[in-house]
């Protein structure tokens, strides 16, 4: 089938000034509520899983995976009907898990293209024009996107094409990675069922009306709709009918609307049964840290602070809100790091020193992002310990001697002798060298130094070594300014 003149005009409009055709991609997550649950519990991926929605006892099936479909479970069934089937794992819908899964999908898409349209929680559109010089050909880009999404715990359908409509329909109609050939959109999409045409329809009632009309006409596939005369179709269904026919051919005038969501790196998990011991809690934290680190790596960022929030059960027999308390911990990192194992060990040491004190019902973990540390050691500079190992060692020492008893000392601005306080040790200087900050001397010491300098200038004191005819021999007085960057010493004396 040869392309129509309207299709050729569309391709002419989609050509850039450099003479290259624009290309687009679509990332679609089938059964998104189930995928959000499987991302938090990967061990359930090989089992039949169904997600419930509603309040007991009126709970219905919202979404199921492919294994559950093979057993006969369908969305809309009641919980009582599904419980009669063996081997079905039921989980309640978690909007918080769906939100974190959607943010992970955004991180995956924006690691390839800066122009991403946030179309729906389970679907994103990307502008791939000009990215072949960075990531290779379109098939290579599609496979890379699919691998990156799989690393983040999401099984997706990825489609790339030279029109937005073709990429969107191919992602909903074909599983895995799909590449729509240039100029063959009509032939490639012709075998798709007509229901795919309304995949992005906002109003389900409108789609039901058109689907009923197409059923009476005997239209089952895309090719059946494209074979109808355009004028007669628009006379019966109006402008909307003509637009659906153009969309079935992979054509359309839809434009990409990029979005710029804020950078939020957080993961949350609602536990089926409360956790009492720290060891099973460490397994949950390990999985969440791996997911957060993969998202940070996709954005070329590192972690500066860790925020842990645990929802605890305090054992009261009252309302749900009164039965829960919040336990929070914050870990400040000396330099931006990106190591899930180090983060897990720091959290374990902190929780061992400060235990929650009650069973954990919900875990919320957030990371404050920062630019990664860029350091290069000099040839003639002494080697220093790695920041990751140094922070872990200090955390172990603090767990033994107590919090606030290990770190970097800082002199206090007071008249008390040798008064200081312990601060968290941080790395400063160039190339990540371990140099302490240059703190000014206390006020009382600075005044004493200035007074003695004035005495020396007036001739009241001799700044040379003073002689003493006693048994102890010559004696002199040394005074340090107290600067941490380097001690400045002044000798003061007087002949007797």
Can you put this structure into words, describing what you see?
With 496 residues, this protein is an alpha+beta fold. It has 4 domains: 151 residues, no CATH class; 129 residues, Dna Ligase, domain 1; 32 residues, no CATH class; 50 residues, no CATH class. It is 36% helix and 21% strand. It is built from 16 helices and 16 strands. It has a 5-stranded mixed sheet with strand order 5-6-1-7-8, sandwiched between helices. Helix 8 links the parallel strand 7 and strand 8. The protein is elongated and about 110 Å long. The N and C termini lie far apart (115 Å). The N terminus and C terminus are likely disordered.
Key terms for this structure?
alpha+beta; Dna Ligase, domain 1; 4 domains; five-stranded mixed β-sheet; four-stranded antiparallel β-sheet; 16 helices; 21% strand; disordered C terminus
Summarize the structure.
The chain is an alpha+beta fold. It has helices at 5-13, 32-40, 66-70, 79-83, 95-110, 132-135, 138-151, 164-173, 185-189, 204-217, 222-226, 230-248, 278-298, 340-353, 387-401, 443-458; strands at residues 24-28, 48-53, 60-64, 88-92, 116-120, 123-127, 157-161, 177-179, 265-275, 302-313, 324-337, 360-370, 408-411, 420-423, 477-480, 489-492.
């Amino acid at each position: 089938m040869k392309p129509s003149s309207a299709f050729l005009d569309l391709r002419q409009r989609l050509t850039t000034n450099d003479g290259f055709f624009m290309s687009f991609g679509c990332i679609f997550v089938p059964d998104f509520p189930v995928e959000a649950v499987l991302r938090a519990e990967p061990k359930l991926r090989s089992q039949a899983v169904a997600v419930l929605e509603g309040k007991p006892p009126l709970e219905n099936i919202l979404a199921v995976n492919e294994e559950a479909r093979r057993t006969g479970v369908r969305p809309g069934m009641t919980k009582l009907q599904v419980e009669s089937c063996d081997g079905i794992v039921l989980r309640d819908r978690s909007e918080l898990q769906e939100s974190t899964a959607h943010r992970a999908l955004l991180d995956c898409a924006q690691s390839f293209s800066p122009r991403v349209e946030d179309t729906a929680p389970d679907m994103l559109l990307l502008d791939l024009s000009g990215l072949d010089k960075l990531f290779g050909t379109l098939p290579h880009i599609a496979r890379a996107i699919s691998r990156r999404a799989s690393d983040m715990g999401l099984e997706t359908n990825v489609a790339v094409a030279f029109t937005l409509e073709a990429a969107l329909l191919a992602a909903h109609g074909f599983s895995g990675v799909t590449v729509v050939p240039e100029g063959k959109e009509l032939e490639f999409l012709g075998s798709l069922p007509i229901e795919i045409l309304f995949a992005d329809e906002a109003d389900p009632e409108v789609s039901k009306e058109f689907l009923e009309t197409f059923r009476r006409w005997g239209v089952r596939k895309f090719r059946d709709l494209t074979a109808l005369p355009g004028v007669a179709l628009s006379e019966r269904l109006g402008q909307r009918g003509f637009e659906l026919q153009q969309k079935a051919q992979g054509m359309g005038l839809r434009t990409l609307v990029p979005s710029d969501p804020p950078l939020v790196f957080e993961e949350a998990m609602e536990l089926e049964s409360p956790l009492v011991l720290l060891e099973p809690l460490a397994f949950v934290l390990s999985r969440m840290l791996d997911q957060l680190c993969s998202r940070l790596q996709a954005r070329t960022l590192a972690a500066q602070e860790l925020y842990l929030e645990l929802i605890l059960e305090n054992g009261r027999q009252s309302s749900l809100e009164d039965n829960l308390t919040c336990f929070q911990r914050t870990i400040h990192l000396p330099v931006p790091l990106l190591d899930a194992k180090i983060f897990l060990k720091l959290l374990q040491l902190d929780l061992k020193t400060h235990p929650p004190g009650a069973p954990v019902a919900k875990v919320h973990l957030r990371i404050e992002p920062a630019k990664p540390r860029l350091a290069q050691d000099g040839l003639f500079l002494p080697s220093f310990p790695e920041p990751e190992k140094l922070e872990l060692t200090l955390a172990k020492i603090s767990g033994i001697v107590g919090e606030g008893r290990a770190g970097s000392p800082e002199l206090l601005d007071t008249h008390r002798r040798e008064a200081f306080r312990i601060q968290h040790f941080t790395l400063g200087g160039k190339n990540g060298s371990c140099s302490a900050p240059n703190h000014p001397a206390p006020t009382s010491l600075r005044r004493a130094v200035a007074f003695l300098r004035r005495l020396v200038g007036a001739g009241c004191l001799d700044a040379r070594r003073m002689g003493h005819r006693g048994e102890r021999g010559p004696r002199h007085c040394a005074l340090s300014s107290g600067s941490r960057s380097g001690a400045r010493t002044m000798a003061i004396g007087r002949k007797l």
